[in-house]
Design goal:
elongated, single chain, about 100 residues
Amino acid sequence: MSSTLKPLQSEYRCSDTIEDLKRLSTVFEHVEKLLTLAASLHRKFSNAPRLSESIFADYYEFYLPKMGTGAGSGDVKHQVKNTSTLQAMHQQVNFITK
């Protein structure tokens, strides 16, 4: 995307517009990397359901009911009700990051 911005840079173009387009290009690059990571995590979690259940158990019990209620603005004491130990049983899970 940044390669297409070069022809747009000429003297009669507004420099603010060019800078905005460069920032937008950077944002799209970050989004692309995050989508790649999300796809990789989804594939890994679908192959290891116990791992994903253990990771997201606290999220579904604690954070999800409070979303949109404005409870995050005050002092919120978070206490994990049950902890579990993750052990490598049948397969190793590797996360791909770029």
